[in-house]
């Protein structure tokens, strides 16, 4: 089954321990969704979602998720804004739940700025931006093919 990037965003938001004070910034959420797509392509040989991922100046960005939060919440997304009628939380199948937990465990401990720097060092973002200066806007798509190729090589090198 194909999902949307916003459904994956809702899963990450629902996984936060908000009662314990956990928060997440839109930038960190973007990177978690990006890495979910990348590793899903490697593990299952198909995309998790079809939403476009673009090579923005702060790293891989899914415009549909960006529009949802409109970058209004730079530091953290308030609990009351996490879900809406348009973007409710729906339980996902257990296999996908397990997969996303792995991604959250691997990348969720890092800050948004660390994940931005990491994703910008990696080939898919760099290839999509080509000769675009780092502080210029860029809406070039990061292709699923480039993601699958790059992260498959990382996996074979034992670096997932």
UniProtKB/TrEMBL annotation:
- Report the protein name in the record: Type II toxin-antitoxin system antitoxin SocA domain-containing protein
Query: Which domain of life does the UniProt lineage start with?
Result: Bacteria
Residues annotated as domain Antitoxin SocA-like Panacea: 29-125
